[in-house]
Design brief:
single chain, mainly beta, SH3 type barrels, five-stranded antiparallel β-sheet, 5 strands, about 0% helix, globular
């Protein structure tokens, strides 16, 4: 497992069944299988097999 040194806020677009969902949070850990995001309600782990796109804050513009 590799921990992420800086707190990087990201937006993750992923599939949950046939539904597209988006989570925003701070990227805290990433390994070969999962990405972990820290949010107000706790830490969420998302399988990389379901992730479509990860955007870092500021990449999209206003």
């Amino acid at each position: 497992m590799s921990a992420v040194a800086d707190e990087i806020e990201v937006k993750v677009l992923y599939l949950e069944g046939e539904t597209l969902r988006v989570f925003r949070g701070v990227l805290v850990e990433e390994d070969e299988i999962f990405v972990s995001l820290k949010r107000r309600d706790g830490v969420v782990r998302i399988s990389k097999n379901h992730i479509i796109k990860i955007d870092q804050r500021g990449e999209e513009g206003p």
